[in-house]
Amino acid sequence: MSKLLKILLLLLAIPLSGGLVQAQTVEAEGAARIESSLALAKRMALQDAIRQALMQANAQISTTTVTTRRGVVADNMRFSAQGRVTHVAILREWSDKDHYYVKIRAQVPGDALIEALLKAEQGGDAGQASPYATAEAANRYRRKVAVSQFHVLDRTQIHDLPNIETELARELERRLISDGRVLTVNASQYLLPLSEEGVISQRRILGALPPAREPHQVASEFAESLGVQFVVTGVIRDMSVSNHFLGRKMRHLELDLFIHDGISGASVARHRVSETMEEHVLTDLHPADSVVMSEKFFASPFGRKVDQMLDRMVGLIVSDVGSQPFTARVIRAEGNRVYFDAGGLANIRVGDVLNTYKLSEVPVKDYPGQRALGYTENPSTNLIVTQVQRLFSVGELAEDITRLAPGDVIRFEP
Predict the structure, then answer these.
(1) Which of 153, 266, 321, 359 has the fewest C-beta atoms lying within 10 Å of its C-beta?
(2) Which of 302, 320, 338 corresponds to the end of one domain?
(3) What is the pLDDT along the chain (414 residues), one digit of tens a residue?
(4) Quick one: 102 and 179 in the same domain?
(5) CB burial class (10 A; 0-12, 13-18, 19+) of residue 255?
(6) CA-to-CA distance for 354 and 330, rounded, in angstroms?
(7) Domain check: are 88 and 194 in the same one?
């Protein structure tokens, strides 16, 4: 059943009494003291107005402020799902000698509609919540990853496992979808170039994408083309069968898993997982008539080991990308109005305050100048999210003098 159909069924099941389904139109005013600049006071006043509007809807708010001797260096704010706002319009702005004021009109869905949207986004049917459909999970930004085809070191070892290199990627992506803690893109049709150290460092990707402008840009350009924040790939190192004591057959399973950052292209994590299974008859390990990643395949001893390893890899991926700061790309900039490639599916909410960074055009390289280490990021200003669609969001920059461009970075830093 499609998510759109699920949403419609959930909405039809919600009672229309009490005005819970329809969004509330809330008007609120915010104020901030003028201290260092009008732009900063405007941002704080708008933030306060959104806070006041959400407080009328009984929302919960969490803030994070990092300070040094020089003052505030990072000021992020997140609103709970109960305080989801679909649109903010600034009705009036004014100031006096000491304060800046903003009046807004905000659309706030009712409680029942919020619950229905959360269930639909988590992929659960009505009346059956996803294992991670909790308030904590709803408040967590969801990273987006692309899972590409696995490399095979020795193809003679997989003659009885047709297309295992692509089926592994598809099954891993399917399980990440079922897990629900990250967003995914199926990139099993692409074979990324890997060095011996597992670094994506060459120019060409096997697939439909054009070659990267520079070897070090292949991972970041690949991630940008798919709209993801992380790239997952791997290597099938060993799936050989060997003879064992007293005529037993042993099959080996050893995989390398690589995770790359989609902004810098740098390696985030590398894991090696391995299993060995032993049976009297080789066909008991993997039935010859079973389709790879099918129910019959997973019922075999070899399939059960693959099943366990896939679950382990899901946990590793979620843990690794979840430990990284949430990052999105600017896709369009119109003055102070900025579009970026993360939306409601990633748990972005109207009223969230994110940090912005301008990326350098040239990467920083190591001393020999042969290995790209990433791009310098120049802190810009805060961005207040004013509109959220499923796959993208729109925000307003706090400082009038700041200009972002496509490819620059939006980040939440707890």
Answers:
(1) 153
(2) 320
(3) 444 444 444 444 444 434 444 567 888 898 988 887 777 788 788 878 887 887 776 555 555 655 555 555 556 666 553 456 667 878 888 988 889 998 988 877 665 444 544 444 444 443 333 333 333 433 479 999 999 999 999 999 988 888 999 999 999 999 999 999 999 999 999 988 877 665 665 555 656 555 555 555 778 888 888 889 999 999 999 998 887 766 677 888 999 999 999 888 888 999 999 988 776 444 555 555 678 888 888 888 888 899 999 999 999 999 999 988 899 999 999 988 899 999 989 999 887 888 898 887 776 777 776 666 667 777 778 888 888 889 999 998 877 667 888 989 999 876
(4) no
(5) buried
(6) 12
(7) no
The pTM score is 0.71
Answer whether 90's CB lies under 8 Å from 102's CB: yes
Measured distance CA(222)–CA(211) in Å, rounded: 10
Each as own residue / partner, the long-range contacts of residues 196-202 (CB below 8 Å, 24 or more positions apart, any chain) are 198/235, 198/256, 198/258, 198/267, 198/270, 199/267, 200/231, 200/233, 200/258, 200/260, 200/265, 201/371
| Rounded Cα gap, residues 407 and 335, in angstroms | 15
| b/e per residue 144-167 (b: at least 16 CB within 10 A) | bbbbbbbbbeeeebbebbeebbbb
Contacts of 401 (CB under 8 A, 6+ apart): 39
Structural domain contains residue 118? no
Query: 3-class DSSP state for residue 314?
Result: helix
Which domain does 50 fall in, by range? Answer: 23-109+324-412
Using CA atoms, how far residue 180 sits from 115, 129, 138, 261, 395, in Å, is 17, 11, 11, 20, 26
In whole angstroms, give the CA distance from residue 177 to residue 155.
29
Gap between the Cα atoms of 67 and 364, Å rounded: 28
In this structure, are residues 219 and 135 in contact, taking their beta carbons and an 8 Å threshold? no
